[in-house]
Amino acid sequence: MRILPLSETASLLLDSQVMNYQSQRDNDELYHSLHEKTQQLLYELPYHLHLLAEEECAPFLFFCWDAIDHYITSFRIGRLSYLGYLSQVVRRRSRHYMAQQRDKAKRDILLLKSQRYAYDDEECSMVGEEEVPYLKSSDIVMVDIEQLPTLFEQLLAPACGDHTETVDDELKTLFYSETNRRRLLIVLTLCPDVANTHLIDELADLLGADRELLSTYLSTAETLLEEKRRCREAFETVSNRHFRRLLEIEAQMEDAFDPDERKRLEELREWTARLYKAKVTKIREQEVALTHSEASRILGIPKGTVDSSVHYIRRLLLRYMDEMGINGYP
Question: pTM score > 0.85 for this model?
Answer without folding.
Answer: no
